[in-house]
Every structure is written in structure tokens, then in C-alpha cells.
Design brief:
This protein has four helices and four strands, in the order αβαβαβαβ. It has a four-stranded mixed β-sheet with strand order 1-4-2-3, with helices on both faces. The longest helix has 14 residues.
């Protein structure tokens, strides 16, 4: 899990990401998202919706084993994040994770 945490943080710092469930869904719909990271311990209906959309759009789904508060802290944000869409990976290898 430490590797995933490092890749997420590197993508946030050096790449381009969209934070939040609605922004992630919009990025998937617009075919801009290369990968989506979702907090597994978030609300089940949100996780299920993202899984379904990623399957339809053929976007890589990465499950973060923590909750939304932990994902927000990992991204350096003072708020909880249920999902984030990776638009450009930057120096991270998160798309290959």
C-alpha cells in the first residue's frame, strides 16, 4: 500500500488530477480520465457508480484501501475526497499500477 500512496501523492504533486466524485464522473464522461482512484471505505453507492462507469468507459479503477478522510490527507487537502481522476500522471506510474 505504501507504493500506491507514493504514486497517488506524486500524481497530485506533478500531474493533473480532478478531486471529487462529480469531477471524476465528468472526466470519465469526457474521456479525459486515464485512471480513477476511489476510497473503498466511502459510501457504497458512490463506489458502485464509479466502478460501473469505469467499466463502461474502459478507465482503470484503483481502489484506495482507506476512507475518504485518509485519501484527502494523502493528497494534502484539508477535506475528505471520495474519488479523484488522474488526467495526466506526471512523474508517477499510477496508470500502470
Amino acid at each position: 500500500m505504501a507504493d500506491l500512496n507514493n504514486e497517488i501523492r506524486l500524481a497530485v504533486d506533478t500531474g493533473k488530477v480532478e478531486f471529487g466524485l462529480r469531477s471524476s464522473i465528468k472526466s470519465i464522461s469526457d474521456a479525459k480520465a486515464l485512471a480513477v482512484v476511489v476510497a473503498e471505505k466511502g459510501k457504497k453507492e458512490y463506489v458502485d457508480d464509479l466502478i460501473h462507469m469505469c467499466n463502461i468507459a474502459n478507465v482503470k479503477l484503483i481502489r484506495f484501501s482507506g476512507n475518504s478522510v485518509e485519501l484527502g490527507a494523502l493528497c494534502g487537502k484539508p477535506f475528505s475526497i471520495n474519488a479523484l481522476a488522474v488526467l495526466e500522471p506526471g512523474n508517477s506510474g499510477i496508470v500502470n499500477y
